[in-house]
Specification:
A two-stranded antiparallel ribbon has the order 1-2. The chain has two domains: 74 residues, Multidrug-efflux Transporter Regulator, Chain: A, Domain 2; 117 residues. The protein contains ten helices and two strands; from the N terminus they run ααββαααααααα. Helix 6 packs across helix 8 and helix 9 crosses helix 10. It is elongated. It is mainly alpha-helical and 229 residues long.
Length: 229
Amino acid sequence: MTIGAVLDALKPDFPDVSISKIRFLEAEGLVTPERTPSGYRHFSEDDVERLRYILSAQRDRFWPLKVIRESLDALDRGLTPPGDGGDADRPQPPRPAADPDVPTAASLTRATTLRLTRDELAASAGLDATMLEALETFGLLRADGSGHFGEAALAIAHAAASLAAYGIEPRHLRPFRTAADREIGLVQQVARPHRGKPGQTGKADPTGDILRLCISLHTALVKDGLGQA
């Protein structure tokens, strides 16, 4: 959009705005439209919305340019835009959205009826006998008392088989089991005092929720680490 088109878009809501006002806000560094090789300004829709925010802050909240600049910087860093709470209503850190990569507390503690033999597990995941034995040797797969494998073991086997395509062997996966066992030990230690005593009712077992929070932390740490790389 040209500066004239921007002015026409803003005039209905801000009758006092002028081209000189827009140029002034640009000179102050509050909006930075692109420039053509010939020097003409080209404003994007985001630039127009930014100008609306600035003009609203001046008209409705009486914010000085210093405060507006700080608020724009906060918005550029991902903070949540303010509502209509008055002069003190500044952009705020957002609440974290539910991560779809993190399972629910109920799914983590839900009992399953699936029981697979070693041959069935290997066939489903496409594992040969050597790979399956290695996963058992390094503690990734554990049969129950009857020698069967459950739903979680099926997921582990499929993940291990997929990782093998990238050259990741069962011996490389041992740290995952060690970390998981330590995490489970911590969760059980923390959850134990919160469980109801024998014969006591009405006190929910927090194990699933604590596990969910731990997995959420782990996922966030991995994503943060990848972002820092």
